[in-house]
Amino acid sequence: MKLLNLLAASITLGALCGLPAIAHHSALYFDMDVDLVHANATVVDFKIANPHGILVYTVVNDEGVEEEWHAELPSANFSRRGGVVESILSPGDTVTVIGWPGLPGRTRENLMRLSRAEFPNGDVATFTAISAVYTRAGTE
Amino acid sequence: MDNSMGLIKFTLCVAVVGGTSLASGIATAQADIDGIWSPHIPANMGQPLEEDFNYTPAGQALWERFGADNDPSFRCQMPGVPRGIIDPYPLEIIQQDHQVVLLYEYYHQVRRIYLDGREAPEYWPLSLGGYSTGHWEGETLVVRTTHLSPDNVMTTTGRPFSGAEDTYVIERYTLAEDVITLTAEIHDPTYYEDTYVMRGLWELAPDGEIWEYDCDPGFGDVG
Questions:
Q1: Mind telling me how many Å the CA of B4 is from chain A's nearest CA?
Q2: Domain spans, chain A
Q3: Could you read off the pLDDT of B44-68 as tens digits, one per residue?
Q4: Measured between alpha carbons, how far is B139 from A42 in angstroms, rounded to an integer?
Q5: Parallel, antiparallel, or unpaired for β B196-204 and A111-118?
Q6: Class of domain B25-210
Q7: DSSP of B17-34
Q8: For B7, which of A46, A66, A135, B23 is 20 to 30 Å away at the CA?
Q9: pLDDT by residue (tens digit) across A99-138?
Q10: Closest CB from A22, A25, A28 relative to B46
């Protein structure tokens, strides 16, 4: 866990400083300068998998219309090492979903790359392209 | 047994063992890299800076066409060489006199680095892993890989790799204080004007584990 945190910090630092680091294809498909926030999202499905996990959820947009979205996670191995397992979310659960939206023309519509999930009980899961960390409320 | 007889037996053993070693071409390793290693890529390592890429016109054209339709990650294709050299997953190394075996967690990739002086057989096919031979230079394992597949790419971001007959990869794994540092030179004159260099680093993880990596292409696509 310590090493993965350090790895995530290295990558973030590399991105900020313009230094070389691990290249990941997420940057080809998602706008990593934009944080898209979907509060009160309702979970439809949640799978931890390789090469990427997926969270399917619905959210009501500004026009009052329900939309279905998909949020892509890092690989199953990164997720599980960081404590992100399938039992943390079930269909019908409410969660706040934050991530990088797909670039127009590069991905299908209503797809994002998950960067953070906030749970009603205060638990938080954070993600980079190649890491995941699940933090229980009160243990930060 | 008197001392003179013992000395004769010892001398014979040294001669036989030494002769066998010389005959097979095995250079004794000077570093112990056996074990499980955890990845750690500092910010000043990894892939080259964007502005340092120097494509040939053919390489530039291919790079501009890369996207989800031809991204091998989405097809669960084993990364191989060079794409999988520094992926940030644990790595187990089995060190033997005649070979070093690299067991990657990522895609269950297995690489054998032959150290006994052999060369690639004529029948060896092109493949994602290629054919690797190596030797020790002090505490550095030097690996040369040929027979690489044109189906590969340089990185997960789609930097092109030609797999032409004159492509080859030189990796240098150097051990210092339980840390292995890798410098890899990828020679691909079809797509790059200069040698492409990537760097990686692993820390010894005595309690580390290699996990299963099953891959389902149904969970990969963004299109």
A1: 57
A2: 22-135
A3: 778 887 778 899 999 999 999 888 8
A4: 55
A5: unpaired
A6: mainly beta
A7: HHHHHHHHTPPPPSS---
A8: B23
A9: 999 999 889 999 999 999 999 999 999 999 889 999 999 8
A10: A22
Residue with tokens 């300068």: A33
Q: Tell me, what's the pLDDT at B27?
A: 63
Query: CA-CA distance, B12 to B21, in Å (whole number)?
Result: 14
The answer, yes or no, to whether residue B196 has pLDDT greater than 60, is yes
Q: Does B18 touch chain A (CB under 8 A)?
A: no
- For the entire predicted model, the pTM comes to 0.84
Beta-carbon contacts of residue A42 (< 8 Å; ≥ 6 apart): A57, A58, A59, A92, A93, A94
Q: Is the pLDDT of residue B75 over 60?
A: yes
* Gap between the Cα atoms of B41 and B73, Å rounded: 20
B60 CB contacts (<8 Å, ≥6 apart)? none
Task: Measure CA of the first residue to CA of the last residue in chain B; give whole Å.
Answer: 79
Instruction: For residue range A5-30, list pLDDT tens digits in order.
Output: 333 334 333 333 334 455 678 888 99
Domain residue spans of chain B? 25-210
CATH of the domain spanning A22-135, picked from 3.40.50, 3.40.30, 2.40.50, 2.60.40: 2.40.50
| β partners of residue B127 | B148
More confident position, B53 or B142: B142
Name every residue whose Cβ is closer than 8 Å to that of residue A74 and which is 6 or more positions away in sequence.
A52, A53, A127, A128, A129, A130, A131, A132
- The distance in angstroms from the start CA to the end CA of chain A is 14
Express each pLDDT in B201-216 by its tens digit.
999 999 999 999 999 9
By the 10 Å C-beta count (0-12 exposed, 13-18 middle, 19+ buried), B95 is classed as: middle
Give the residue among B5, B205, B170, B210 at the shortest CA–CA distance from B89.
B210
Contacts of A6 in chain B (CB under 8 A): 40
Is ipTM over 0.85? no
Q: Which residue of B has its CA nearest to A22?
A: B46
Do B47 and A29 make contact, defined as CB atoms within 8 angstroms? no
- pLDDT value, residue A19: 40
